[in-house]
Amino acid sequence: MKRLITAGLIVMALVSSAPAQNSPELLAQQSFALFRGTPADRQKALDMLVASGRADTAPILILAMRFVSPEYRKGIVDGLEKLTGAKPGEDWGDWMRWQEAHPEIGAMPGFAKLHARVHDLIDPNFQLFLRHDGHHEIRLEEIVWGGVIKDGIPALTNPRLIPASAASYLKADDLIFGVAVNADARAYPLRIMDWHEMLNDVIGGVPLSLTYCTLCGSGILFETSVEGRAQPFVFGSSGFLYRSNKLMYDTATHSLWNQFTGRPVVGPLTGSGIVLKTRPVVITSWQEWRARHPDTKVLALETGHLRDYSSGAAYGRYFASPDLMFPTNVDQSRLKQKEYVFALRSSGTEKAWPLKLFEGGAVSMTRLALSISYWWEML
């Protein structure tokens, strides 16, 4: 009788453990061997994921493609093809673009924790952003490491400014971000901002952040005071990207924000309804800006960081190339993916025109475009 009871307990234990062995959370946990394990462990983890037959394990394998050595890549590609039936290509970029185009294949439960654990190997501070609280409104599998640690691209906060007459380091054709608020004009040269991408300052008595994604060429000026919060937000560079656009973070909550929309998309502030208000900012030559704003202040070359601030030193090759540094799907049927555009957001409407349309002077296409033409000439 004792033997029968013991045997029964063993059978019950096996039956009760079977679902756990196949649970998505456990699959994701065991998949960590793909990133940090012996060759045998890696192969075992790969075989386990493929044998599961779950298409939602694809984000794990795509993440692994980014970090594994080349000898493991073919096996991962074969596994992805079996699980998804897709054949977009042989490298990580191909599969990232495929993943972006197929939101119906989401990440399995447990992926968020694995995603955070993998990036913890790069920088433990990434845990500040990738906590497992479930608050996010973008796909976690599309958040990619940008190649730097947290604040590896250091923000400039209340930086030193100098009068225009002292800015001898600037050439006439150097491009600058021009900002004017309440008669307070500022020039922030791109040759410096290329290295920092985030600037927190008070201009004309208004707390503002100039957020600059070099990868997509978007410089956006946001008001950082938000109703209901005692202090303005201060922003930095997280080290992460979403669809080749930087994810910035606020130092108060470490929520990740979409730089292009000014909305928190991962972390405690997600779903808060906060959308940062924008202010006008222009990109023009130092010569033109100084002529229009002779009393302008200028970002000093002495930022407290050792960088080569000569023109084009940071991203000259990238800007000159037609290629992207990080993968995302771009419709190039009308414009090339890195072609500069003149964009306007107004009353819920967003429009963009290639800069080349303005080379001959004012352009009139719609009533909205008439106001754009006028503003363009006023720069």
Topology:
Blueprint: H1 2-22, H2 24-30, H3 39-52, H4 58-67, H5 70-84, H6 92-101, H7 111-120, E1 143-145, E2 156-157, E3 161-163, E4 175-181, E5 184-189, H8 190-196, E6 198-203, E7 206-213, E8 218-223, E9 235-242, E10 245-250, E11 256-258, E12 263-266, E13 278-279, E14 282-285, H9 286-292, E15 297-299, H10 316-320, E16 341-346, E17 349-354, H11 367-378
Parallel strand pairs: 2-6, 5-15
Antiparallel strand pairs: 1-9, 3-15, 4-5, 4-14, 6-7, 7-8, 8-13, 9-10, 10-11, 11-12, 16-17
Helix pairs in contact: 3-5, 4-5, 4-6
**What is the helical fraction, as a range of percent?**
25-40%
Query: How would a textbook summarize the main sheet?
Result: 5 strands, antiparallel
Instruction: Note the gap between the termini.
Output: 93 Å
Order of SSEs: HHHHHHHEEEEEHEEEEEEEEEHEHEEH
The average pLDDT value, as a whole number, equals 89
Quickly name the level 1 CATH class of the largest domain: Mainly Beta
The number of distinct helices, counting runs of at least 4 residues, comes to 11
Overall shape: elongated
Contiguous uncertain segments of 5+ residues: 1-20, 367-379
Whole-angstrom Rg: 25 Å
Please state the second-level CATH architecture of the largest domain.
3-layer Sandwich
Widest sheet: strand order? Answer: 1-9-10-11-12
Question: What is the SS-derived class?
Answer: alpha+beta
CATH topology of the largest domain: Rieske Iron-sulfur Protein
Number of distinct beta strands: 17
